């Protein structure tokens, strides 16, 4: 077993968070843009590639604001994810457009993107769910705990 690294983009404009909208098995949920680091890539290269694939845009990468682990055996989908161990590095990013065409390689179930109001973030099924309060704290207070641990 190995640990997979992932780079994620936290993109906020006008007090709204950009999220990828996923529809699977009759459910709608949201995730941050980004994905797995490939062998030979650094985290910034992985994030640029993933945002191009999922959003069809280039991103300007800023500071690292959160590090999250996901150890599948510790969460509600342990029966499916017991083997999974992923570390996600979440970077504050900027894009120079408000709407997006689909990228070149969409995530499974990806139907588009949506700007989620930060004030209403707790009302959305944004995964990882526990990250929502950290995002709100960061954007309300300008800082939050960087290492958020093994959350889902």
Automatic annotation (TrEMBL):
Alphabetized Pfam families for the sequence: NUDIX (PF00293)
Origin species: Lysinibacillus louembei
Listed PROSITE patterns: NUDIX
Protein name as annotated: NUDIX domain-containing protein
Cofactor: Mg(2+)
Top-rank taxon: Bacteria
CDD domains: NUDIX_ADPRase (cd18880)
Keywords attached to this entry: Hydrolase
Residue span, Nudix hydrolase domain: 1-140
Ranges in coiled-coil conformation: none
Lineage: Bacteria, Bacillati, Bacillota, Bacilli, Bacillales
